[in-house]
Amino acid sequence: MPDFDLAIHATRDTEDTNAIPGQQVVYSRPNFESVMNQCVEKKPEDLRSILVYACGPGAMVNQLWDVTSRKNKKDLRVDFYHETFEF
Questions:
Q1: CB environment 16-46: b (16+ within 10 A), e (fewer)
Q2: pTM score > 0.85 for this model?
Q3: Nearest Cα to 31, choosing from 53, 12, 7?
Q4: How many folded domains does the chain comprise?
């Protein structure tokens, strides 16, 4: 079974330490370049694909799309799926 790495970032003003029991929630904007670099570095050597799923505002999804698309290489396929919502 493939590894699953979940990163939850909340950008609201208050920190709720019980937001999602059992999951770490980071209260800041994600650094997508750093997150993607970690995913690529941590992947098993024989893994040839990574799936990135994003749900959020259009500007955030577009930023992650740009970072994700730069990670596609001859020996690594990065698939990107998203949902967009606006308030």
A1: eeeeeeeeeeeeeebebeebbeebeeebeee
A2: no
A3: 7
A4: 1
Instruction: Decide: helix, strand or coil at residue 27.
Output: coil
Tokens of 54: 């994003």
| 1 found inside a domain | no
Indicate whether 65 belongs to any domain: yes
CB-neighbour burial class of residue 13 (10 A; exposed 0-12, middle 13-18, buried 19+): exposed
In a domain, 69, yes or no: yes
The predicted-structure confidence for 5-56, as pLDDT tens digits, reads as follows 777 777 776 666 566 777 777 788 889 999 899 888 888 888 899 999 988 8
Q: Is residue 34 part of a domain?
A: yes
Which structural domain range is residue 79 located in?
Answer: 8-84
